[in-house]
Design goal:
Length: 449
């Protein structure tokens, strides 16, 4: 039987050239509908939408092994066509544009790669550099903190820090390994803690990728890893009950963690869909950008925000999910949570099921007792989330006071391209957004109505 052609997205299209079966994405079926079409093992995909919807559908098809992906000519801007062409090349697939007058034309990669879904990278990097060593400036990146907001922040109580789940493991990946869900466990361990890490996994063999790794520092706000910077010496350690697998993972890592990302991901037990989406990216180093990209892709593909994948509160799975609605990633997260002591599992599940206003790896706010109503979220109170890549103490305190002034007393949060606004019974507070426009609403948990 001939493999079918699938047709994804909205928009007019004629399929004069396609013979045999053509399966069309049902409107409003979301990611599940797309997955059902991909499961038919199509030989080609025609993507009719523009914007993020078209871009992420085309990328998904390339990642999943569809040999030829056809875009509607002119539906995507040139930079995005080129980005998809670069992805097609890295997966060994073909990308075409088509219209009725000129027919098919292959798209060749060209120009710089772009991180679709992330804030503007150049402006972001510039803002991070400009704010280096200046606490308040770093706390205000992407926000228009004028004199009035300075004053309001001064007067405000800092937003309370979110409380940790009592007794919860520092590294839930080790829980997944103990569950048998990962052939290999990968840890970046400070050299002085290596014996302790080894002692936690007495039944496993350990292999080191390099005897001594370069000291690793994490850039504030973006969470970008900077090798060779000042910082504590660390080692890349791989554990497995099968010594061959540990050695193989270490060797692949040594030969190039980026080049071998797919093979390493498989050894670490990451879902193939998530590894492929990660490998496809133009830049994988900026952790904060990955959150934006994943959120954009989730919305574009019509996926849900599964609360166990609420990475802003806690990373239950160590990899970047292909979308926040990825069923395979969610199922791994479910197994981790299910193996925790009951009180921990309940507290963690509740903590994850909160909408988050995420700016970067230093600034994120969880909204409590929240209700999602379209683009608005009504909430009772807010908590500042412990940061994976925090600002300095003065900067963090200023950020907490600034968000304290914005969120105090609860209300309804509305986000537009130009501002964040909190409306209460007797007030409207509006905090402007500026380049590089940080801030994305992650609608995890929160009953909708
Ligand atoms: Zn996935």
């Amino acid at each position: 039987m001939r493999q079918p052609v699938i047709l994804l997205g909205k928009g007019e299209v004629s399929l004069a050239a396609a013979d045999g079966d053509v399966h069309v994405e049902p409107e409003g079926a979301g990611l599940e509908g797309i997955e059902a079409l991909l499961a038919k093992d199509p030989r080609a995909a025609v993507v009719t939408s523009g914007g993020d919807e078209g871009f992420f559908r085309a990328s998904l098809c390339l990642e999943r092994g569809v040999k030829a992906v056809v875009l509607r000519r002119g539906a995507l801007e040139q930079a995005r066509e080129w980005e998809l062409a670069a992805r097609a090349r890295s997966f060994g697939r073909d990308l075409f544009v088509h219209d009725d007058t000129r027919g098919y034309e292959r798209v060749r990669a060209g120009g710089e790669r772009v991180q679709v879904g992330a804030p503007e990278v150049a402006a972001w990097e510039m803002a991070v550099r400009a704010a280096s060593g200046q606490s308040r400036q770093a706390a205000a990146i992407g926000l228009d903190v004028d004199a009035a907001w300075e004053k309001a922040a001064e007067a405000a109580a800092p937003l309370p820090m979110d409380a940790p789940v009592p007794g919860l493991s520092e590294n839930l990946e080790e829980v997944a390994f103990a569950n048998g869900d990962k052939p290999v466990l990968y840890l970046v361990v400070p050299t002085r803690s290596l014996d302790a890490a080894r002692a936690r996994h007495p039944g496993a063999a350990m292999a080191l990728a390099r005897a001594e790794a370069a000291p690793l520092a994490v850039e504030g706000a973006t969470g970008r890893r900077i090798e060779g910077a000042s910082g504590e010496a660390s080692v890349h350690a791989f554990f497995s009950t099968n010594p061959d697998l540990a050695a193989r993972a270490a060797s692949l890592w040594e030969q190039g963690s980026s080049r071998n990302a797919a093979a390493i991901g498989e050894l670490l037990g990451y879902p193939a869909c998530c590894t492929a989406a990660f490998v496809a990216l133009a830049d994988r180093r900026n952790n904060a950008a990955l959150v934006y990209v994943t959120a954009a892709r989730t919305r574009a593909l019509g996926a849900s925000f599964h609360s166990l994948l609420d990475v802003a509160v806690r990373r239950v799975v160590p990899f970047t999910p292909c979308s926040f609605g990825c069923a395979r990633a969610a199922s791994l997260a479910t197994r981790v949570v299910a193996s925790l002591p009951r009180a921990q599992a309940e507290a963690l599940t509740a903590a994850l099921a909160r909408p988050v206003l995420y700016l970067d790896e230093a600034r994120a706010v969880a909204l409590e007792n929240a209700r999602i109503e379209g683009a608005a979220i009504t909430f009772e109170s807010a908590r500042f989330l412990p940061a994976p890549a925090p600002l300095d103490p003065a900067g963090e305190l200023f950020a907490r006071k600034l968000f304290g002034a914005l969120f105090e007393g609860g209300g309804t949060l509305v986000c537009t391209d130009d501002f964040f606004e909190v409306r209460g019974a007797s007030f409207t507070r509006r905090l402007g957004r500026t380049s590089p426009r940080l801030g994305v609403l992650l609608p995890f948990g929160g009953s909708s109505g």
